[in-house]
Structures are given as C-alpha cells and as structure tokens.
C-alpha cells in the first residue's frame, strides 16, 4: 500500500529513517531549494528517489499543510513486541515503553510519539482497533518522530503481561482518580511501561487491572485534568529524569 507523507520535517525524517520504500517526491513550483528542502533533495539523490516539480494545487489536494513537499512511499512498518524488547536488550537498558489505550486523536498520538522518541523509549504499543494508527497525519503531527520509533499493534492487556514476564517491567497507569498515587511517590527508574488512556474515558477496566500502580499529576489550577498527550509527555520526561539519576548514581 502506498501513501503520501507531507510536510518538510515529516518527509525529511521519513527519508532519513530509511524504513520504507520510496517512490517519488513532489515539490511545489517556486519553492526555494534551501534549508530543509535542500536536505530533502540531497537525501532523495542519495536514495535515488525521483523528484518532480508540480503546481501547488496538486499538493493542496494531498494535504492542507504540505509545506510545499510530499513523498510517496510504502505504508508504515509496524514492529512486534519482541522488537521492542530486543532493542532494550541491545542498548543494555531497562525497558521503557509507552502503552496507549484507544488514543483516537491523530494530533495527540503524534505528540506522544514525538515525546516517546525524544526520551529514548524503546517502543510504543497501540491497540489493534478503535484507535488511531500511524497514518500520514500522525507522521506529520509527530514531525517524523514516528519513523525512528518502534510502534507495535497488539492486544494492550496481553502486551502488558508480556512486558512484565519478559522484562520484569513495572506497569504504571496515568489516571487522575482517588486511587492514584502522586507521581513523585512512585519509582520510575527501572523497567517501565507507562500507560495513557483514551482522551475522554481514560483506560479501559481490563487495561487498568493490568497496571501495577496508578499515578496522577498535581493539579493546582481550576481545571480538573490535562490533555492526554501533555500528561503522557510529562510522565515520559519524569521517567527519563529518574533513569538519568539512577545512571549517574551507578
């Protein structure tokens, strides 16, 4: 299956990651060949990807935010749970994974993928159905971070059990409920899977039962909760901070 990746950073990172098959690049007439466009063209030359100059309306039909460039390529290459576990072992690090329970907004998914890649997470697990997948819109929302990240589609509850059994992972669910512990009272420096629930309903009961502990972020303002992508990103950086302190202490 072919698809179009649009946007300068998304196209650049897709080419740089080399995880897909590339067919052709379209650039809007009049776009200057400098900065990111120059880098994209250099990668296309290195990868032998055909480049065509086309009228801007042709790109407008592909995306409202193409930024003058679009790459035709194969579909997103999903990973398996074993790939995520193998990457952690390869790096010699305790597992750090993100489990997303029915995140449906492409912008939220893209933001979470970008944060997960930025903190060095070994992978992300998303459900097989009823959730956003890695579409071109998600690739663009993640600024191409999705291309450097292992994302697996799986039964999330079963995936959590697999991570517990094979990596001795601690599963931490992010939820603002009365049963939740403040995030700073929970250890985040070992093998860890952070679970973020649906934007409106949170985690499903079965997924929640597979969590070892629930944590919440402090709320001192007048609103009751944070956006799922913002809250998940904060917790990813809290985990990175805890792991960094552990490394420094060794």
Automatic annotation (TrEMBL):
Residues 4-79 form the RNA 2-O ribose methyltransferase substrate binding domain. Signal peptide: none annotated. Its EC number is 2.1.1.-. GO terms for molecular function: RNA binding; RNA methyltransferase activity. GO terms for biological process: methylation; RNA processing. SMART domains: SpoU_sub_bind (SM00967). GO terms for cellular component: cytosol. Keywords: Methyltransferase, Transferase. It comes from the Bacteria. It holds the Pfam family SpoU_sub_bind. It is an enzyme of class 2 (transferase). Belongs to the class IV-like SAM-binding methyltransferase superfamily. RNA methyltransferase TrmH family. NCBIfam families: rRNA_methyl_3. This is RNA methyltransferase. It comes from Anaerolinea thermophila (strain DSM 14523 / JCM 11388 / NBRC 100420 / UNI-1).
